[in-house]
Amino acid sequence: MPTAYLLLGSNLGDRTATLQAAVAELGRTAGPVRATSGVYETAAWGLTEQPAFLNQALEIQTNLSPAQLLAVCLAAEQHAGRQRLVRWGSRTLDVDILLYDDLVLDTPTLQLPHPRLPERRFALLPLAEIAATLVHPGLGCTVAELLAECSDELAVTRVNGEPR
Ligand code: X6L
Ligand code: MG
Ligand code: MG
């Protein structure tokens, strides 16, 4: 069964409860959650005048295709009450697919691996906690190496949770 890595993000409402509900929902709709990183509080990228995020990375096993997986990720965002008002604006829940096996894909609706992953400490640090030795299929280096080379200096602080 394919393995995918997801990044959850929330900076509106009860962020912790939203992440917990999303992990449970994705376990039912996408497939078994094999690993969860700790939860990280992270300064907002893009529109910096917005509340800090909680971000968390997940490893899931799934029989869904990438397009089907994207659909269940967007459904989880809807169930969390996400409203898309402003590009890069505050959101109750964002679910991004970071990697899907060693697939490299470039379509208008889905790019894999996530094209901005190497630049974002808020994604690399949680991901490194559960998949440090995973090789990025486009770049040929590990997640730990990407993290070591990442020049993003926005604050990323682990707030709780043991990796499992
Ligand atoms: C110039 C202008 C350079 C905009 C970069 C970066 C825009 C990231 C959007 C950018 C730019 C984004 C999260 C976030 C967002 C998140 C944290 C985005 C989309 N999502 N900040 N900002 N965590 N910490 O999940 O990533 S909006
Ligand atoms: Mg995102
Ligand atoms: Mg998204």
From TrEMBL:
Residues 87-98 form the 7,8-dihydro-6-hydroxymethylpterin-pyrophosphokinase domain. Keywords: ATP-binding, Folate biosynthesis, Kinase, Nucleotide-binding, Transferase. The keyword Transcription does not apply. Pfam families: HPPK (PF01288). Its EC number is 2.7.6.3. One of its GO terms (molecular function) is 2-amino-4-hydroxy-6-hydroxymethyldihydropteridine diphosphokinase activity. InterPro entries: Hppk, Hppk_sf. It comes from the Bacteria. Catalyzes the transfer of pyrophosphate from adenosine triphosphate (ATP) to 6-hydroxymethyl-7,8-dihydropterin, an enzymatic step in folate biosynthesis pathway. This is 2-amino-4-hydroxy-6-hydroxymethyldihydropteridine pyrophosphokinase. It comes from Hymenobacter terrestris. The lineage of its organism: Bacteria, Pseudomonadati, Bacteroidota, Cytophagia, Cytophagales.
